[in-house]
Amino acid sequence: MRSALTALALLAALPATGQSPFPVDIGGPYELVDQFGAVRTQADPDGKYQLVFFGYANCLNICSAAMPLMAQVVDELARDGIAVTPVMITVAPDQDQVDTMGAPLAEIHPDFIGLTGEQDALQAAYDAFKVEVEPLFMDPEYGWIYSHGSFVHLLDGEGDLLTLLPPVLDVTQVANIARGYIPEPS
Question: Which of 94, 108, 115, 160 is most buried, judged by most C-beta within 10 A?
Fold first, then answer.
């Protein structure tokens, strides 16, 4: 497992060449609803780069590591004048609804965007990003616990995938990889 993560980290660190270094086509269109009730697509409305993660707001496992990492990377890149939006696409629409996911995401970062929707709209996003979601068991306190993708996706402002970022890297490593894909601000 460790060698696979190392290989993925090296792949993620490859410089941008205008062509995807991935052996499969990842990413694509979706239309979901954010925690404010606004419809959003894969393109950022402000043209910002995005860190996108498939998870859920009250996840106690990989989400509790990946989403704070995303927040720290957003802040580190902001110090360089690079605007990046952290985005979570829910894998638990029964738990993450327009009126329930905003507060927990705001605790992680005030700019965090949470996306939810009908099952078919979410499935379109899962399929586009090759994310498998499977309910594992019902936790009496937190509700359903899900198995889901663990990578953070770096997207440009148009919603095109630039690279995958494993959340086992530290903030500096992830920020440095992202910088390799994002042109310096002018």
Answer: 115
